[in-house]
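>> received
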Amino acid sequence: MVFKSEIKNINLVERLIDDISAKYQLHSDIYGKLLLAVVEGVNNAIVHGNKLESDKDVVLQYEITDKIIQFVITDNGSGFNYKDLPDPTKPENLEKTHGRGIFLMNHLADEVEFNEKGNEVKVIFNLS
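>> returned
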């Protein structure tokens, strides 16, 4: 799935996840975690990666096997240093209105992997 960097396109992602969940009869726990983590990743790609520039694309790919479901989200941005993120649970960061997305993704998915550049993230969920 390829779409422009506009917040309204998150609806497309939500519909895709709903369709996948119904087709593969995903457990509601997996569905909830998957929805939150993937939507957060797509939102990050749109807002932080592509800086809401609607001429830039976000690419969303997925693969499902009997053991895992994985999504790969790629933006056209310059990337970021995913190894150096502030801890949103520290007192000095609790009042900030941003900075929790990757923290959430890490806690919801079984695996989260970034490419070296930091403009692509893979979120993996175990189905067994």
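>> The chain has a mean pLDDT of 91.
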